[in-house]
Specification:
252 residues; globular; 10 helices; alpha/beta; 17% strand
Length: 252
């Protein structure tokens, strides 16, 4: 999988301008990290035709810290290339295994979203998705973190669209605070009550079937082996691969 010249031209203006004698242009760089994302290989195993693995890694590190891919993704949303003007959005999370090589980040880098759960070392990707292909926003947490507080945080950073949006959530988000906050922010929550709740409520079961779209979104996201298994010590680099995958999906 590689970006074509036509696809690259759609995002070129949002990328840092290259000055001086640069051996690896931005298109070559993006295809290099796309290769790493798709194949899940080590940086040192990057084929030589993509250039120096160290140069690629350092630029990925720099772009991630400077929020380059965040800006590209936001710009695509603003342009409508990634269509989020929909009446139904889904909130859910997926868990990814953390490879032992991803442990041991320096403390000065801050706490990373890696935790120990029944499945071992894991990271959760919390996502608000418009459909099976396009995410609106996402965040990371340790695998042992509860879904509801993370979902609340994600909603606060993602105001609903201009038209009324139904918010489809599974039972992990069925708490009273979660439903109340969703309504206050302008969403119409569609979530079934937990089986052990004394308080029951009706919900649109037919519309709720659309929640499988976010499961299909996660399936698409995890076709990139670098996301299916986390190999990166730093959240910011791991998030960079997730952003790249979501940008690539906007072209397919």
């Amino acid at each position: 999988m590689e970006l074509t010249k036509e696809q690259y031209e759609r995002i070129e203006k949002y990328l840092p301008k290259q000055r001086g004698n640069v051996r690896i242009n931005n298109l070559q760089f993006l295809n290099a990290i796309l290769y790493v994302a798709e194949n899940g290989c080590k940086w040192r195993a990057l084929p030589k035709e993509y250039g120096s693995w160290h140069t690629i890694y350092m630029r990925m590190n720099r772009w991630s810290k400077n929020g380059v891919l965040d800006r590209v993704f936001a710009a695509l949303q603003a342009e409508g290339i990634i269509n989020i003007d929909v009446d139904v959005v889904c909130l859910d999370s997926t868990t990814v295994k953390v490879h032992p090589d991803a442990c041991g980040a320096l403390k000065k880098g801050g706490k990373q979203a890696i935790g120990r759960s029944r499945g071992g070392l894991t990271t959760k990707i919390h996502t608000l998705a418009a459909c099976e292909r396009f995410a609106i926003n996402f965040s990371l947490s340790s695998g042992a973190a509860n879904d509801s507080p993370q979902g609340l945080r994600l909603l606060h950073f993602t105001p609903p669209g201009k038209q009324k949006q139904f918010l489809l959530m599974d039972r992990a988000y069925s708490g009273k605070k979660m439903r109340k906050t969703a309504v206050e922010l302008g969403y119409a929550p569609v979530v079934p009550p937990k089986r052990n709740y004394k308080e029951k409520w009706e919900y649109d079961e037919e519309r709720y079937k659309q929640r499988n779209e976010i499961e299909r979104f996660f399936r698409r996201l995890k076709r990139f082996r670098r996301i299916f298994t986390r190999y990166d010590k730093l959240d910011i680099i791991f998030s960079g691969f997730i952003l790249l995958a979501m940008i690539i999906d906007s072209f397919v």
